[in-house]
Amino acid sequence: MNQKSRQLLHVFVVALGLILLIIYKATNSENEHVRLEGDVSQLLLRDGDKAKLLSFYDSTDVGSLNIGIEGFSRSDALFEKKKSQYKAKTLNFVCTHDVLKKYLDSGAKIIVDLTVGKNLADIIVNFHVTSARCSRLGL
After folding, report:
1. 132/58 Cα distance (integer angstroms)
2. What is the DSSP letter of 1?
3. Cβ count within 10 A of residue 28
4. d(CA 113, CA 54)
């Protein structure tokens, strides 16, 4: 095998490796999103309110997690109490969920928005979570 053939083979192997890596990352990311969506919907809330993953965006430095609370209303008599409880449950969830913990452990921070229903503009709670914050809380 001459030098040019070896170089072409090397380029082919590297290109194939990159393609396989991209496919793996895309598949793994989609599986994480599906698992996260299912786990968010299992958050135990009060009075039949249900949590729903509206969006999750991640990058190397920051992630954004938007969760809608269906059945929850600003006119609810226990609004402030429920809001506080939902924030605590969500913070615990973010700090302990394996998909989100992976991002936190890599040094990224996650910005969490809890909204009324599917309305992304009606944010009732907004907070940032870092690995250090989870550690301080013992999570």
Report:
1. 19
2. -
3. 10
4. 10
pTM of the full structure: 0.74
Q: Is 97 in contact with 139 (CB distance < 8 Å)?
A: no
Run of H or E including 54: strand 50-58
- Give the pair of three-digit tokens for residue 125: 């709670």
**Helix H or strand E segment including 89:** helix 79-96
Please, are residues 37 and 53 in contact by the beta-carbon 8 Å criterion? yes
Integer Cα distance of 25 and 3 in angstroms: 33
Tokens 């009075």 correspond to: 47
Using DSSP's 3-state secondary structure scheme, residue 111 falls into: strand
Question: Measured between alpha carbons, how far apart are the two ends of the chain, in Å?
Answer: 58
Q: Are strands 109-116 and 62-70 parallel, antiparallel or unpaired?
A: parallel
pLDDT tens, N- to C-terminus, the chain (139 residues)? 688 888 888 888 888 788 877 776 666 666 777 888 888 888 867 677 888 999 988 887 899 999 999 888 788 788 888 889 899 999 999 999 988 998 899 999 999 999 988 888 889 999 999 999 999 988 7
Question: Which residues fall within 8 angstroms of residue 136, CB to CB, at 6 or more apart?
Answer: none
